[in-house]
Amino acid sequence: MNKIKLYIILTAITATGLFLRFYHNLDISLWHDEAFSALLIKYPWGEMFYRIGLDVHPPVYYIVLRLWSYVAGNSLLALRGFSILFGLFTSLAAYGFVKAAFKSEKSALITALLISTSPFQIQYATEARMYTFGAFLAVLAAYFLVKALEAGRESLKTKNLYYALFGIVSGLATLTHYYLLFSVAALCLYALCYHIYYYRFAFKKYLSLLTSYLLLIAVFLPWLKWFLFQYKQVGSGYWIPPLDRWSIPSTLWQMLLGIGIDITHKTTQVGVVLVSLFTLYFLYRFIRSTINPHKWLVILALGAPFGGAMLFAVLAHLKGENSSVYLVRYFLYASTFYTIALAVWFTNFKRQWLAYVLLAIYVIVNLSAFTHYWKELDVKNKSGMAQAAELLSHNAASFDGNKIFVGSSFEFFNLKYYLSNNLGKTIGSAPLPLPALVDGHCAIDCLNFDHLPRPLLYSGGNTHASNLPHFAGTAILTDSDLLPKFADGVKQGDTVWLLWTNGFGGSKPEVPKNWTQVEEKGFAEVRPYVGTWVIITKYIVQ
After folding, report:
1. What pLDDT digit, counting tens, does each position of 158-200 carry?
2. Which of 87, 314, 325, 502 is 20 to 30 A from 514, comparing alpha carbons?
3. What number of other Cβ atoms are within 10 A of residue 415's Cβ?
4. What is the C-alpha R_g of the chain?
5. Count of alpha carbons within 13 Å of 20, Cβ hemisphere only?
6. The last residue of a domain, from among 356, 377, 398
7. Where does 27-99 show beta strands of DSSP type E?
8. Closest-CA residue to 388 (of 509, 222, 271, 500)
9. Nearest to 85 by CA among 146, 21, 34
C-alpha cells in the first residue's frame, strides 16, 4: 500500500474516531470522579501531590492533566478533550504495535478501525479520568517492547533505546492506574520468557532487558511509600462489589459489543454466555493461526488483569473477606489487546472475502451499539448537575440569609466545579424555571461563584473530613467544607437550598422540623447510572 493511500485511510479512521468521541460528549454533566480530577489539579504542586497520596490513585494522570490544563484550560471541553485525545492516540499506538509485532499493515489498519469505533473505548472518552490515557500507555509500552525484541539486526544503541523507553513508559503506566501493574507484569513476563526461549543461558543478552526492569522500578520506587498507604486505606474502607459468576462474562460482552446490560434477565445471560464462548473460540483460532510469537504477548496482556482480579479475590477470601478490585472500567486496558487479537484473527482468515464481510458486519454492529447507547442515555433530557448548578447560580445569590447545603459527598465536588466555573448556559433542551431571571437573562454577577454562598456538605455529625470513607473524596475535603448538623448552619428566616441525590444509594436527608419546604426540582442525571437524579429542595427556616 502506498503511503498516500495509507495516510488517507488512517486519517479517515482517526476522523471517525474523533467524531464518535466528541458526539454529545459535553451534554453529559460532569460527575463526582471527574470533578475530583478537575479540582485536584488546581492545588499548588506540593499540596496536589500530598492530596493525591491521600487518595487511592497514583499521580501521573493528574500531573499530565495539569500540564494539559495550562494550555487547554479547565473547562469541560478541555478536561474531556484530554481523554478524547488519548483515546485517538490509543488507536494509533495499537496500529503501530500490530504493524511492528505482526508485520501486517492490514491487521494494523483493522485494529485502528475497531478501536476507533468500539463503543467500550468511546464510552471512556466521555470521562475526565485516567482510563484512555492508561490504555494508551499500555499499548505504547507493548510497542516499545516489541521494537526492542525485534531490534537484533539494528544497532545496540537503538535496541537499548527501545528497552529504556519500554521501562520508562511501563513505569509511568503503573503510576497512572494500579490495574496497569497487571498489564506491565504481563509484558515483563513475556519479555523474560522470550529471552529464555531464544537466548537460553546467553546471559549477556539479558542485560538490556534487566536495565528496562531497573528503569521501571526506579520510576515507581519514589511512590512506593504512598502506594502502601493507599493499599492499606483501600483495604480498610472498601466499596467495590465482590466478584460473581457473571463479572468476567459481562466484561467480555462489553469488550466485544460495548452495550450495557441487565444481567438479571435470562435472555441476557444466554447472550453473555454465547459471547464468552465466542471469545474463547476466536482466541483459540488466533493462537492456532498466528505463527508470530508475539501472539503470547497479546494473550498475556489481555488475560493478566482478569488473573490479577481473581488473585486479589482469592487472597481476600483466604483472609475471610468478601472484597474485590473488579470494575468493568478497569478492563479498558485489556480491551485494547482483545481488539488486537480479534483484528489479527480477521486477517488470518483463509477466505478473505468472508473476513471482510464479518468485519463490515462487526463495524455496523459497533455503530448500531453506539447509536443505541446514546438513544438510551437520552442526554437532552438528563441535564443533571449542570442544570441544577445553573439554577443555584441564578437564584441563590450570596447574602446572609441564603445557604447552599449538599446532602451527598458524591455531588459536592461537581457542584463546586460548576459554580466556580461560572456556568452560564443550559445543558439539554428542558427549560429552567428560574424566578430570579429578568426577561430571561441573568446579570453577570449572579453567575459569579464569589456572589454565591459557599456550599457546605452535610456530614451527619462528622466534624473531621478524615472520619469519612476515602471514596467520598476525603483527599480534597477539608473540615471547613463540612456541616455536621443542619441546625447549626442556619437561623430563623434563612433560605436553604438543599441539593441531594438518589444516586450512590443516597436519599433525601432528614431536615429540622422548623424548616418549611417551599419547592423542589429534580434533574435527571446520566451518571453514575440510569435512574440517578439530582434534586434541589428549597426551604425557609421558621
Report:
1. 999 999 999 999 999 999 999 999 999 999 999 999 999 999 9
2. 502
3. 22
4. 25
5. 28
6. 377
7. none
8. 500
9. 21
Q: Please state, in angstroms and as integers, the Cα–Cα distance from residue 431 to each residue in 99, 346, 375, 438, following that order.
A: 51, 49, 20, 15
* Bond preceding residue 242 cis, omega within 30 of 0: no
Q: Which amino acid is at 67?
A: L
CB 164 within 8 A of CB 151: no
CB 62 within 8 A of CB 48: yes
Domain that holds residue 518: 380-541
Q: How far is Cα 284 from Cα 301, in angstroms, rounded to an integer? A: 16
Tell me the CA end-to-end span of the chain in Å, nearest whole number. Answer: 78
Dihedrals phi, psi of 364, to nearest 5 degrees: -65, -40
Label each residue of 283-326 as H, E or C: HHHHHHHCCCCCHHHHHHHHHHHHHHHHHHHHHHHHCCCCCCCC
Residues 360 and 398 in one domain: no
Q: Are residues 402 and 363 in the same domain?
A: no
User: Which bin fits 456, alpha (ψ -120 to 50), beta or left (φ > 0)?
Assistant: beta
- How far, rounded to the nearest angstrom, does the alpha carbon of residue 286 sit from its chain's CA centroid? 29
Q: Going by DSSP bridges, is the β-strand pair 495-501/533-541 parallel, antiparallel, or unpaired?
A: antiparallel
Q: Which of 261, 230, 239, 268 is nearest to 326 (CA)?
A: 239
DSSP state of 391: H
Could you tell me what percent of the chain has a pLDDT over 70?
A: 92
Euclidean distance between CA atoms 33 and 56, whole angstroms: 12
Locate cell 483484528: which residue? 343
Examine the domain organization and report whether 356 and 403 are in the same domain.
no
| Nearest alpha carbon to residue 97 among 132, 131, 138 | 138
Whether the pLDDT of residue 296 is over 70: the answer is: yes
Cis peptide preceding 528, ω within 30 of 0:
yes
Sign of CA dihedral 110, 111, 116, 118: positive
Q: Which of the listed residues 349, 377, 405 is the one where a domain comes to its end?
A: 377
**pLDDT above 80 for 440:** no
Q: How far apart are CA 438 and CA 204, in angstroms?
A: 78
Is 299 within 8 Å of 283 (Cβ atoms)? yes
